[in-house]
Every structure is written in C-alpha cells, then in structure tokens.
Amino acid sequence: MAEIAFRHVSKQYQNASQAAVDDVTFEVEKGETCMLLGTSGSGKTTLLRMVNRLIEPTSGEILIDGRDILKENPIELRRRMGYVIQQVGLFPHMTIAENIRVPEEISGGWTKQQMRARVDELLMLVGLDPTEYRSRYPRQLSGGQQQRVGLARALATNPAILLMDEPFGALDAITREHMQEELLNIQRGVRKTILFVTHDVEEAFRLGDKIAVMSEGQLMQVGSPIELLAHPANTFVSRLVGADNILRQLEYLPVTIAMVQELNPDAAPVSGEPPRCPSTATLLRAMLMLIEKNVTALSIYDEESGRIIGYITLSSINHEITKSGGRVKSETVVQ
Ligand SMILES: Nc1ncnc2c1ncn2[C@@H]1O[C@H](COP(=O)(O)OP(=O)(O)OP(=O)(O)O)[C@@H](O)[C@H]1O
Ligand SMILES: [Mg+2]
Questions:
Q1: Residue 31 pLDDT more than 90?
Q2: Pocket mutation for ligand 1, best pick of 36, 39, 42, 47 (most atoms within 8 Å of C-beta)
Q3: Is 42 in the pocket of ligand 1 (CB under 6 A)?
Q4: Element holding 219 (H helix, E strand)
Q5: Cα separations (Å) of 200 from 47, 74, 150, 241?
Q6: CB 100 within 8 A of CB 159
Q7: CATH number at 250-322
Q8: Mean pLDDT value across residues 95-110
Q9: Which phi and psi (to 5°) does residue 123 adopt?
C-alpha cells in the first residue's frame, strides 16, 4: 500500500484567479524518496503543506497508510512526520540539544537520559560532533550546520515520513552536495518515506527514486529520473529535465537503452567477444570503458544470468542521445 496517496487534490486560495494545486493524483510508496520538482509558484509548497495539514485542501483526499488525513487530529498527524524547511526555524534562545529535544518533549514518554543519548546519536548522524555542538546556540553555528540541526530535529522521534521544503536551497553548492550525500546515507540506513520540494533538477535527479513534475498547479508527469529523461510526457518536462542535455543523459540513462542486437562487421573485433559491460551500467560508464579499453564495441551482459544480451558501440550511443527531444510523444498533459 502506498504510504502517501494524493487523490484529485486541489487548493484554491481566496482571491486567487487560478488554483494553486489543481486536481493532483499520485502515490508515494513506503521508503521512497519522491521529489516535487517545478518552477516557482507551481504549487509545490502548497501540496507539501497539505500533507501535514498546515494548509487544508479545497477538494480531494490525501491518504496516509490508507487513512484519510482530514479525519485525523492535525497535531497527532504532525507528530508522525518530520518537517524541514529552508529557514530552519531553530529557537534562538535554546541550545542545539534543547532544540533537538523539542519534538521528544512534546511527544512525551522519554526519560532525560534517553533524550540526552538520542540528541548525541542524532548529532552524529548528521555529522556534527556532540561534545562540540550540543551546548552551543543556533547563532554560533553556520547556516549549513543549522540546517543539519534542523534535519536532526526532524528525525528526533523517528517519524516514518519526512517532508522537506527546499531544505538545502540557501546553502552554497559544496555544502549542499555534502548535505545531499548525508541524506542519501541516512536513507541507506533507516528508510523514510520522503517528500522533498526542490526547483533544482540536479538535486531531484540525485536524490529522487521518483520525481513529480509540477507546472501551474498541475502534475505534468511522475516517474523515475530515467523515465522522465527517456520519455518526457511533454515539452515542459523535456525542457525542465534537460532531455536534450547530453551529459545528463550519459550520466543517468542505462546502457541498455542504446543497445543493439548485432554488431555490424566494422565494429566487430577481429577475434572473440568484445569486453563485457554489465546491463546496469550507465551510458557514461560504457563510454568510459570503450575509451579506456580502446575498443569499438562492448558486449552487454545480464548480471543475474551472465548471458550476453546485446552490444553497444560509440555509434549506437551517439544515435540514441542525438535523437533526444524527438521522444516527446504527445503535447497533451498527462493525468
Ligand atoms: N496564502 C496564499 N494566498 C494566496 N495565494 C497563495 C498563498 N500561498 C501561495 N499562493 C499562491 O499559490 C501558488 C503556488 O504557491 P506555492 O508556494 O505552493 O509555490 P511553490 O511551487 O512552492 O513556489 P516556490 O518555488 O517559489 O517556493 C502561487 O501562485 C502563490 O502565489
Ligand atoms: Mg515553495
């Protein structure tokens, strides 16, 4: 069962000519990281904040674990979700440890000792040395360090769902990359269901199992990064994800997309099989292998069976990536 399900969700603000969120339907599975990607004003924050009922939908349903959230107590609901925003929102007059303890104190049932141990555990999880940072005040931390504390606080009561609204948006590129890496590391251990708002395509591709593309309140497409890149539903998605960006295609598309069944005699090696490349490799990895081994072709094998399933050559890669843009099947909006 989907952990979060949006069913025909709309939000019409008063005095607004257009719905901020317009009939959005999609699902996020348990343990999945779903990125909400779209231009400014496309309704991402509105959609996210409807999940913890900071905003109420005008129509439609949001189900969590199959239960309609509008039938739940909003305070109870929020306790089951971590919420991280760009402005962090730490309490300035409280130490880092006190800030992280807030959700635990609210939810109750924690002893002082348990809370102390949990604070240290969380600080280590987000890469801050507890002895150095637990007694400091927020103003004594850099922006990136404060953002880490915000993440630690959101994880404090071990919620199954994390809602994140451009949490790394204000950070410099290097710190942002560190934080993304950190989040991926955390996700490798304790898998949370994450709904993550961003307008940064690179971030969506790095972090997302799935990406929901929004434009003017409407959902344009939901799919894995590879699906969006290989089969954008319309020109908006194609432009946004850079389906014509050759480097991005090489980096994310699997080698199987450019595979051919037979080698033409010019590309075939003089004797024997070409070097082997696993079917799970990206086009970029295959290309580097071709250069490194100084060969004209690679044989692609299925990792489970070990069987050769096809071949790849520079010209088959080239053929695949130069036909991009032509992949958009229909100009009509899906969903
Ligand atoms: N409280 C409000 N009252 C009226 N209109 C609002 C309100 N909040 C947001 N809007 C409008 O709803 C639309 C969607 O806003 P939202 O904040 O959800 O966009 P967003 O995709 O998060 O944008 P950004 O990337 O700039 O944060 C915008 O046109 C915005 O002006
Ligand atoms: Mg927003």
A1: yes
A2: 42
A3: yes
A4: strand 218-223
A5: 17, 30, 20, 10
A6: no
A7: 3.10.580.10
A8: 85
A9: -60, -40
> Which residues 6+ apart lie within 8 Å of 267 measured at CB?
296, 297, 311, 313, 315
Mutate to test the pocket of ligand 1, among 15, 45, 218 (most ligand atoms within 8 A of CB): 45
- Burial (CB count <10 Å: 0-12, 13-18, 19+), residue 231: middle
Q: Which atom of ligand 1 is nearest to the CA of 55?
A: 1
| DSSP character string of 84-145 | EETT----TTS-HHHHHHHHHHHH----HHHHHHHHHHHHHHTT--HHHHTTS-GGGS-HHH
Residue 273, pLDDT above cutoff 90: no
CA dist 36 and 41 (Å) reads: 12
pLDDT in tens, 223-235: 999 889 888 999 9
Q: How far apart are CA 18 and CA 216, in angstroms?
A: 9
Given a contact cutoff of 8 angstroms between Cβ atoms, the answer to whether 256 and 279 are in contact is: yes
CA-nearest of 278, 326, 317, 281 to 296 is 317
What tokens were used for 76?
């109870």
Which tens digit of pLDDT belongs to each residue from 168-217?
887 888 888 888 998 898 888 878 999 999 999 999 999 999 999 999 99
2-242 classified as CATH 3.20.20.70: no
**Strand ranges across the sheet with 218-223:** 81-85, 161-165, 193-198, 33-38, 210-215, 218-223
pLDDT of 278: 95
Name the closest-CA residue to atom 25, ligand 1. 40
Whole-angstrom distance, CA of residue 195 vs CA of residue 270: 52
pLDDT of residue 168: 87
Three-state DSSP class for 204?
helix
CA of 43 from ligand 1 middle (Å) equals 6
At residue 99's C-alpha, the angle toward residues 94 and 102, to 5°, is: 120
Strand partners, 211: 35, 223
The ranges assigned to domains in the chain are 2-242, 250-322
